[in-house]
Amino acid sequence: MKRVANRRYTKTPLPNSVPVSGADGLLADSFITGGSGSSGYSIPVMASNHNPNDSTTYYIGGNPAAPSTTAALHRIYFGHNTGRITLANVYTQAVTTAGSNEAWSAYIRVNNTTDYLIATLSLSTAERLFFNDALNISLVYGDYFQIKLVTPAWAINPAGVGYGGYVFVEGAG
Amino acid sequence: MKRVANRRHTTTAKANSIPVTLADGTLDTSFFGATGTLGYSLNVTSLTTSPLDSETRYLGSLPRVPSTTAALDKVYIPSDGTIEIAQIFCSCSGASTNEAWSFYVRLNDTTDYLIATVSNASQDKVFTNLAMALDVVAGDYFQIKHVTPAWVTNPGGVAISGHVYITETS
């Protein structure tokens, strides 16, 4: 990601250049959402294959490990002073058995305390995409989060389920 | 995600703002995407594998060994934009010979876009393309596809990771 702070300005203006600064020559604060000079960034989440059990709560984070039933194990720490998670995209893919269509929920769990629902899916497809672009979860430095998954009592359990995805953070400053 | 271009200019410059403008008060728009947005990256990864000769494999954001089956490990794109950059790093515990190895961005399991072809005998192989210019829309998905050569000596213990960089257009 190109950061404002790292670029040098030696070129002549392009035809489509736009005025962005105030009288002080500084980049208008409104062009960025945080002090990092970025409009946002994604943080990957993942977990390796497992066979989820019925009515069980699992947690994943940024480690390439199987989901754990132990909370606060795979943490992702927030590295800015402030910011907001605005979007989550958790993709699951079952390579062995797709599973039946009972309701399966995914959450963002902050500081092992508070859950924010990403989505509940009732699908019998091998692929399931837990997606929510209307999140507004404030974070401060030192907070951490995990992805929490609550499985149903499946008639047919999915098997060989892997996880990959990301959350999107805005307003990091 | 919010577009930079849609933001209102109601605040004063922050104390940690930096001078970014040209002498005439304009900004080089190469900073941003086509509509004046900063971008973001989406990561890809895989578990360690020992690739075979002359095969095609696919990986996405799931920590799995790359699959010979397409469209398994997808990375979904959340908003309209342009894939500007793709960067893949292969770390090989055992170096290979220098036959040509190619990596692609495969969009919607339909079309391949070459990232790079690398022919070296190093343990580290970097596949980078800074000019992908690949338009995408919300709901598209991609994978990283790679096509191995017929190596004289195959690499061993290959871990693959990387990212694509996307600027938003809506």
Could you give the distance between the termini of chain A?
A: 16 Å
What is the typical, i.e. mean, pLDDT of chain A? 83
Low-pLDDT segments of chain B:
2-19
N→C terminal distance of chain B: 9 Å
Number of E-state strands of chain B: 11
What is the share of helical residues of chain A? under 10%
- State the helix count of chain B: 0
Mean pLDDT of chain B: 85
Low-confidence stretches of chain A: 1-22, 26-38
Profile the largest sheet of chain B.
5 strands, antiparallel
Task: Note the quaternary state here.
Answer: heterodimer
> Got a strand count of chain A?
11
Strand content of chain B: 35-45%
- Helix content range of the residues of chain B, please? under 10%
List its traits.
heterodimer, A: 173 residues, mainly beta, five-stranded antiparallel β-sheet, 0% helix, disordered N terminus, B: 170 residues, globular
Write structural notes for this entry:
The complex is a heterodimer of chains A (173) and B (170). Chain A is mostly beta strands. Chain A has no helices and eleven strands. In chain A, strands 2, 5, 8, 9 and 11 form a five-stranded antiparallel β-sheet that branches. In chain A, a hairpin with a 3-residue loop joins strand 6 and strand 7. The radius of gyration of chain A is 20 Å and the shape is elongated. Chain B is mainly beta. In chain B, strand 6 and strand 7 (111-118) form a beta hairpin. Chain B has no helices and eleven strands. In chain B, the strands form two sheets. In chain B, strands 2, 5, 8, 9 and 11 form a five-stranded antiparallel β-sheet that branches. In chain B, strands 3, 4, 6, 7 and 10 form a five-stranded antiparallel β-sheet that branches. Chains A and B meet through strand 1, strand 2, strand 5, strand 8 and strand 11 of A and strand 1, strand 2 and strand 4 of B.
